[in-house]
Write a structure and sequence with these properties.
By secondary structure, this protein is an alpha/beta fold. Helix content is about 45%, strand content about 15%. It contains 10 helices and 11 strands. The strands form 2 sheets. Strands 6-7-8-9-10-11 form a 6-stranded parallel β-sheet, covered by helices on one side. A 5-stranded antiparallel β-sheet has the order 4-3-2-1-5. β9, α7 and β10 form a beta-alpha-beta unit. α7 runs parallel beside α8.
Length: about 325
């Protein structure tokens, strides 16, 4: 069944004893546990790293080891024999692709060769499509005013090239219409890790197009700059959902019509790679302790059973002696 409070109560009693408070103790008892949940029709397995406001921070059991928040009532606790093999306490190789996000926060520099396209032409799009396979490049269109037709042509070339992993569209004026084409890029094969859309005249409508796509897929985007656009308080809930879905994503929102208090509401779901590693190691330690306590309980139960067996044997012998005397 779903891992709601009713479902967690037996677990909390079993592991934490009768003295644990219901609610908080039950949620904390999820940490370190192996769970599964349905994600758009696909069953995913994960390890719980932390719990926060009815959400569980989970590390997915897949090659990318994505970290995200999932509603607790969507989780099913796995039995020991069905739990995934995440017993190692080695730090996870978190999916950052080729972009070193932690370093970028301080340096602001790209770690990929830059491919500038000052004017969008058929020849330049052809060159873009023909970039060597395996190449990872940053495409800069900064300050180039892009019409809908030009932008669509360029996005088609990006999709075909399979080489561009960073996009700089600062001050290109793509607006809400351009977000439709950005949507196609983030829904592609997972190469795009960074998108700069500051000063692009994007409103709440364009954000919804982009955010809906990011929430619908498991995206590789780790840096999304939406600064100095026309976003308002109406988008706070959607932005919080986006940050919750991708807690390690750098979501930059400076100089929009969003208050500092609303920014804090969004940023409370943000996590650094260091924080995630610490939570992972803490969850390993909690699960190890849980297993040790379980082993101790089983040993104690076996000892008690043996003692009861030894006490019953003399009583059986005495009973047999009495029966023998009565027969004689």
């Amino acid at each position: 069944g779903k891992h709601n409070k009713a479902a967690t109560a037996p677990v909390a009693q079993e592991e934490g004893g009768e003295g644990e408070e219901e609610g908080e103790g039950e949620e904390a008892d999820l940490i370190g546990r192996m769970v599964e949940y349905d994600d758009s029709g696909e069953t995913k397995r994960a390890r719980v790293l932390d719990v926060k406001d009815k959400f569980a921070l989970v590390l997915l059991d897949d090659i990318r080891q994505q970290v995200l928040f999932v509603e607790m009532d969507r989780l099913n606790l796995l039995e020991a024999q069905d739990a995934m093999k995440l017993e190692s306490c080695e730090s996870p190789k978190l999916d950052q692709k080729d972009v070193k996000v932690e370093n970028r926060k301080s340096t602001g520099k790209s770690f990929h060769p830059q491919w500038n396209m000052n004017k969008v032409t058929d020849d330049k799009c052809k060159q873009l499509r023909e970039l060597a396979g395996g190449t990872r490049a940053r495409l800069s269109m900064k300050d180039e005013i892009l019409t809908g037709e030009k932008f669509e042509m360029m996005c088609n070339a990006i999709l075909e090239s399979k080489a561009i992993c960073e996009l700089d569209f600062e001050s290109t004026g793509i607006g809400d219409t351009g977000c439709e084409h950005i949507r196609r890029l983030v829904e592609s094969d997972g190469l795009i890790v960074s998108i700069d859309l500051q000063l692009c005249q994007i409103t709440d409508k364009g954000l919804k197009t982009l955010a809906d796509a990011l929430l619908r897929v498991s995206s590789s985007v780790r840096t999304l700059n939406l600064g100095q656009n026309g976003l308002t308080s109406s988008s706070v809930e959607l932005l919080a959902s986006l940050q919750r879905r991708y807690p390690m994503m750098m979501l930059l929102l400076k100089r929009n019509k969003i208050s500092n208090e609303e920014l804090q509401t969004i940023q409370q779901w943000s996590l650094t790679e260091k924080q995630v590693r610490e939570l992972f190691l803490a969850s390993c330690a909690r699960e190890k302790q849980r297993k040790e306590e379980q082993g101790e309980r089983l040993n104690q139960e076996n000892e008690d059973a043996n003692l009861r067996g030894e006490e019953e044997e003399p009583m059986q012998e005495t009973s047999e002696e009495v029966k023998t005397e009565e027969t004689e």
